[in-house]
Write a structure and sequence with these properties.
Layout: H1 4-21, E1 26-29, H2 32-39, E2 45-50, E3 55-59, E4 71-72, H3 79-85, E5 93-96, H4 103-112, E6 117-120, H5 122-129, H6 134-157, H7 164-177, E7 196-200, E8 236-242, E9 255-259, H8 264-283, H9 290-303, E10 319-323, E11 330-335, E12 347-350, E13 353-356, E14 360-363, E15 366-370, E16 375-377, E17 386-387
Parallel strand pairs: 1-5, 3-4, 5-6, 9-17
Antiparallel strand pairs: 1-2, 2-3, 7-8, 8-9, 10-11, 10-12, 12-15, 13-14, 15-16
Helix pairs in contact: 6-7, 8-9
Length: 388
């Protein structure tokens, strides 16, 4: 089995090979998620990687043991002089993470380095990160195992008369007690969430500004997402979409619970969600276009007459799945206009969901690994609606 250090070394090597293919001399890594991806830890500072495979860690804040770092600095302006002292030539073509930094940071770093050309490393890094190593897949599987365990506790956590916030808080406490790191990283400036989402009743139909499958009003306009403080009552569906963040690598799983009996349409829609998942598993394999997965799901929805409530009600999401890893919304994206295809080593969440008037959200979400021949479901837990 690959060790953690072997994994991070592999990931740096894959990046260096890609740099060489793209004619890049060096890259400066600044985002927390990519610092972890290459080194196995988050720190305040910079990682400088050369096309020859050398890498240097520059520590800004004494939050960790200095002896584990190559250099300590006060500001990035010191980096070029240090590299010169190490005998390194200035990079003619330098990569920066445009998609993970502010404009002011970019402008500052552009002035720090005298590169002839600065290019964006974000698309390349997101593409590389979409293919997981065996070690990374094991981390995601560990999260998936714990996520299923937490899901099994929901019926005993639930108490009659609870609000959605009270139930979510109790689930979050159970998660933290069992090792959740409490951090739910997402890519993009319009993505904020803490430890997952719980949607009950018609709150599931409330649109959100965030690019998640479903929204919810939330408890305050400053965070309009998820549970809103409503009392859980007879006839409501309760969708629990709480993050599998028990390692740095996340799994994603949703299960639906009910307070009492739901409507016939709700049970039908839920069974269609399960059916869509099974159909995807029968057809998906390396080389399958992600757009085909979305279109196949939509064709089943249309055949069953559920188009009006698929992936939302007032606002319907235009995708049915997404990659998972260090961030909850990695590549690939399973959407109608996606240009990506499944590749061995990808890990993705598949979430055909429905929102039923007067009931709430139903459906399932599972995390899959693309293997050599097909896809493997790693979030293993019963998929029927579970009565509370």
């Amino acid at each position: 089995m690959m060790t953690a250090e072997e994994n991070f070394s592999l990931q740096r090597r894959r990046f260096v090979e890609a740099m060489v293919r793209n004619g890049v001399d060096a890259a400066l890594v600044t985002s927390l998620v990519n610092l972890y991806y290459f080194t196995g830890e988050v720190f305040s500072g910079y990682l400088y990687i050369t096309s020859s495979g050398d890498f240097y860690r520059f520590l800004k804040r004494d939050s960790v043991d200095k002896k584990d770092y190559d250099f300590t600095i006060r500001k990035p302006e010191q980096i070029p002089d240090i590299l010169k002292e190490e005998g390194l030539e200035e990079a003619s073509v330098l990569m920066l993470e445009f998609g993970e930094m502010s404009h002011s940071d970019y402008v500052r770093l552009e002035k720090v380095f005298s590169a002839d050309k600065i290019v964006d490393s974000t698309p390349l890094l997101r593409s590389l990160r979409s293919i997981k190593s065996p070690w990374e897949i094991e981390q995601i599987k560990k999260s998936a195992f714990m996520q299923a365990e937490i899901c099994s506790l929901v019926p005993e956590i639930y108490k009659k008369g609870m609000t959605d916030i009270e139930l979510q808080s109790e689930i979050e406490m159970a998660m933290r007690k069992r090792g959740s790191i409490g951090c739910f990283r997402a890519f993009g400036s319009f993505m904020e969430i803490h430890m997952g989402s719980l949607l009950a009743g018609d709150n599931a139909a409330a649109p959100s500004p965030y690019d998640f499958a479903l929204g919810g009003r939330g408890v305050h306009p400053a965070m309009p997402l998820g549970a809103c403080g409503m009392k859980l009552e007879e006839g409501m569906a309760v969708m629990v979409d709480m993050a599998g963040n028990y390692t740095a690598y996340m799994s994603d799983m949703t299960r639906t619970f009910s307070v009492g009996k739901l409507t016939e349409k709700a049970y039908k829609a839920h069974s269609v969600s399960v059916e869509i998942g099974l159909a995807m598993m029968d057809s998906a394999k390396p080389g399958t276009p992600c757009s085909d997965i979305y279109k196949n799901a939509l064709s089943i929805v249309e055949k069953e007459g559920l188009t009006d409530c698929f992936m939302g009600k007032n606002l319907q999401a235009g995708f049915v799945g997404h990659g998972v890893g260090l961030q909850i919304n990695e590549l690939p994206v399973l959407a109608s206009r996606s240009s990506e295809v499944l590749m061995e080593g990808m890990t993705f969440a598949f979430e055909p969901k429905f929102v039923i008037d007067g009931v709430g959200a139903v459906g399932v979400e599972n995390t899959f690994v693309v293997t050599e021949e097909n896809v493997e479901k790693i979030t293993v837990y019963p998929e029927g609606i579970i009565a509370l």
